[in-house]
Amino acid sequence: MSVAPVALATVHWGPAVGPQVLLLHGITSSAGTWWQVASLLAERGVSVTAADLRGHGSSPRTTDYALESYAADVLAVPRPASGTWDLVVGHSLGGAVTALALATDANWTRAALLVDPPLVIAAADVDALVEGILADLEPPSAEELARQHPLWHADDAFQKVQAASVVSPFTVEATIRGNAARAGEWNLEALFGGGEVPVVILGADPGQGAMFSVEQGERIARLSDRVAYEIVPGAGHSIQRDAPGVVVEHALRLLPGGR
């Protein structure tokens, strides 16, 4: 399949110099939804860039939502002067895209932090997942969303509503159903069989709607000693909203020399 990258819209926090971090959001979100994690990292002297994935935020819409195309886009985001990000953090779809991009170019980043990534989606789960995500396109008011997610900051709910309002059903269907059908299954676990880049996977609490299961974490940990897996107790799928400090803490540990 021919891959035609699109130029992704980006936003920036923090100084121009210092450790360089790229943030990649999940489906129906946008770069701006990283506002809390990005601000906390910037306060620690980290240079933070967040990108809108294709079909999201201010980035171009397209007919192609193959995972390989998402990965080609993020690999084309202008890199630091060193040519390598110090850390890439990806949530949900952004985590899956991060894993694929890293497998494509091992020099893309020195470390990766995947936040409850959907590395495996069983064929039997695709319909329910698509229906759930499509429901996110017509979310309740920001006030009601905040009540449903008591650990979120009020602005998280506002940002989520704004981000979802510009994502189309076609983007959701083509991303989830299209990739699962084209590959026969959605399974990215094999990407972790080799490589020298350290990867930390943060899984949501299994009792709070985790997409990344304990069983997946144990399987991937057996594939490579470069992969670490940790559950964030009490956090739902959007760990960066439920427990932004935990994501920041892990990000700082993964940066050169720790911080």
TrEMBL record:
GO terms for molecular function: catalytic activity. It comes from the Bacteria. SUPFAM superfamilies: alpha/beta-Hydrolases. InterPro entries: AB_hydrolase_1, AB_hydrolase_fold, AB_hydrolase_sf. PANTHER family: MONOACYLGLYCEROL LIPASE. This is Uncharacterized protein.
